[in-house]
Write a structure and sequence with these properties.
The complex is a heterodimer of chains A (497) and B (487).
Chain A (H helix, E strand, L loop, with lengths): L1 E7 L8 H12 L4 E8 L14 E8 L15 H15 L4 H15 L11 H13 L16 H14 L1 H4 L7 E4 L5 H12 L3 E5 L3 H8 L7 H21 E6 L2 H9 L30 E5 L8 H14 L4 E5 L7 H13 L6 E5 L4 H5 L4 E4 L8 H8 L3 E5 L4 H5 L4 E3 L4 H12 L2 H18 L2 H23 L2 H4 L3 H10 L1
Parallel strand pairs in A: 1-2, 1-4, 2-3, 4-5, 5-6, 7-8, 7-10, 8-9, 10-11, 11-12
Chain B lengths: L2 H13 L9 H13 L2 H8 L4 H10 L4 H8 L4 H11 L19 H10 L1 H12 L7 H25 L6 H27 L3 H22 L3 H18 L9 H19 L15 H28 L5 H8 L1 H5 L1 H21 L3 H36 L5 H22 L4 H26 L4 H26 L8
Classes of the chains: A alpha/beta (497), B mainly alpha (487).
Amino acid sequence: MDIALLTEATYPHQAGGVSVWCDQLIRGLDAHRFTVHAITAGDDNEVIWDIPDNVVDVHVVPLWGAGPEVKHPLHHSVELRSAFVSLAQALARADGEAQFLDALHQLHQLARQVPMVGALRTRESIEVLLGTMQDATPGDREFAADVGPVTVHDASQVLDHLDHLLRPLYVPPPRADLCHASANGLSILMALGSHWDDGTPLVLSEHGIYLRERYFSYAPDRFSFAVRSLMLRFYKHLAWAGYQIAGSIAPVCDYNRRWQEANGADPERIRTIYNGVDTDHFTVTTTEPEEPTLVWMGRIGPLKDVETLIEAFALVHEALPAARLRMYGGVSEENAAYFDRCVALRDRLGLEECATFEGQTDSVVEAYHTGHVVVLTSISEGFPYSLIEAMASGMATVATDVGGVAEATGDAGLIVPPQSPRHMARACLSLLTNDGFRRWIAKAARARVLAKFTLEQNLAEYGDVYRTVFDRSIAARIPAVLVEVPAEADEMLSAAS
Amino acid sequence: MGEVDRERSERSERSAARPSHELTGPERLDRITSWLSDDPALSVACAAAVDPVEIAARLESHGVSSQVAVDTFGYADVFSTAEAVYRQVPFHDVVPPPPSVPAGGGPVDLLRGALYALPALFLPVVVTGFGLRLSWWVLPVGLTVAWGTSQAAATCAWTLLGRKDSRSDALVALGTLLVTGLACLAAAGVAAWALGGSASSVLTVAAIGVYVAASAIMVFQQSELLLALCMAPAAVGSVLALGHLPVAVGRSAAAWCVVATVGLAAVAANRHVPTRRWRLPGLARSEWVQATKFLAYGTSCGLLLGTLIGFASGVDGSARALSIAVWPLLLTLGLMEWQLRSFRSRATAALSASYDLDDFGRRVGRAFRRSIGLYVGALALLSVVCLIVGRLHHLPEVPLLLASVGMLGIAYFMALLLACSGRLNLVLRCWAATFAVLVVALVVDQQLRGHIAPRDGLLSLIVATGTAIVSFLVMARSVLASPLSYR
């Protein structure tokens, strides 16, 4: 089967859990051919993964690069204006999903005739947005009239975002037997194109809930109410569209189901597929470091809440002065400022000597084994690899109760509320100071991974989903008349056999 | 305490110890709002939420999973908890900090302008110090090539800076210097072959190119102070060579000071080369295209100035007349920078202060008129002063040269405003039209008189730059009034 794997800001240009998942999927399902369609921030992208032989091609779809020059900006196109007005109206309404989808369809069709990148960047578009945004008040809330007035800056900011975010809709849609999106985000725009043009079925995996994370990105202290309102509705309607066209929705944990169902996904089409790890690779060690050590692994960023980790460690260090914290993982350029904040916090708390940023590691297993306990302080997660990898490596874990974390650990790990340094510190201390308890948890954790979260189980489930969705789409495309076999032919076939 | 608050407080106390499933609707709400009030940041975020889903996301990130929603607050899940908060907690908008507005210009830009203008004084020092006989094409060729490559290099450097790619900038700086130097040598070689000229002319062109490129790199690096330090030997040497001070140096020594300045600038511009890790700049095709367009833009600017110098050098007594007429342009380079920055700053600020496009257009129009008015006013004032000086020195060519220089200055400023507003394509088209008008005017002149007199060449240039100014003004009305020009 030819699979179009649709990614966003992950494989093959970034490290992290979703990229690990993509790599495992491609290598594990090597009977299929994959074409990767990767949405990236800019157009200077370095492939950092070793691309397997069954990857036919990698197409990059940059959102923020310069893009091709608009030769026919369609400033006066009636179709473009109509599509954009429809899009803006849909974004102004909480129940505008269908109109949103229709507007995207119109834009996609226009993109097949003329270059569309930058075509919306007109004074007229800003005028349309200004009108729309002035209507987008939280009308059903008390004191809704307190919303600040919409400025030209707000409208041009939204237009700027839309112009870039819609770029995946304008590229030639993937040609494949099946599209597989790694998130319900902008990659859905490519899947929509493929769905409209060729009826290509979609398998939709969700690690973290993309929409939930957008609510954190568009924070009230960064964007005006009018901008947040429209942009978040864009993502919300887009998520709805993804659920509507998906032949199968495969969240990585049951917890994500709630979000999917709350946003219009058909429960019948949801099938949880837990992430899996290669248990031969993640081995258990019998030795532990001399000093009580906590290990954290991940890409440093606000969603990982490294600040809570450092604050929690300060409390641990106060109780156990010999304690150490080793934080493994890289920092992307967009999170450089956040990293600086974390370093400043660590230094302010006087933890320079005992809390160290170790950078990226060549051996994840060895990194886990440099500690007694592996911690995870995220405020949003799907089904984190760092957690099940640590469990598979025979490590006791403390993690925040977000996304599918509780499903991953079950009784074989400690769970604490997010953004609570005190709870985190207390749980870490309980494991660091009680060897018997820690070893019991670690053993249970390994056993739980072996039973429920192996790579073999994960790949088998995806193979099955691919077959089911593809067969269903073929069946849907065969004209009904072909299925009606005449009775005589049926008898003849029976006799022959 | 009001009656409602008292009632709520009593209800809270009554419900505090009761299991969540026994709570009534108002008690559930009291419990969640009381819990929210313990975390002011969360409280503020929920009050400003655009919809219930945002509240659900924020509650989850603070530990309210669906299980917690049931066990602690008595709601069915986190979504119904969020819905209740959304319906009952009054909306309260959070005003985000105003968008960042680029810093406006100021008198310090005049000093920056002096950095651009001062080198004009150094060429005569080198010529007299070394006793050079330079061809007329030295300055036009050097400025045209260096202007073009510097613009292209700055575009690449800005792109890399936007990506925070510090591994490529050392290579871009070194590459710019090498490419500019070699391109100048090549262009000067062709000019010497076609028009005649000495090896010293060719070498001087290369030196001009290297200096212009080095100073452009340092301006990009925001190392103007370092550039000023590099210029110190040339400036000090030139002043001492005048012989008006108690300490004096010979003309040859002053010329060597200028050479030292060129060398220092080249070294200082590349000071990061030994310490930075190198990487070839990873520019996309579209970014190379953009850099090429800026190359064309810079080259066009240089060509127009080269045309002016070329024709001016053919006018009788041109050296003295030009040395007076060029001052209004040189002295207003800093003002050009100042007004460009101030205009961008005012226009960007107008984005947040305007609630409709007409209002925005009016504000930007005022800012534009103010900037262009100040620049043209200063240019006119300095031109009058130079006109008087020209009269006093009995130099009849000064008015024509002043007019040419003034028109060029205004055209440069308007082109700069439009290019910085992201309308480089329009500027290039406009420059193409300008050259077309210039060529037509020169051809007509050739046909009518059989030759092109320098004075007529300057008149043709005035007509061409006038055309450019008119077309820039026509475009400015719509381009500068578009909010998209400032994003």
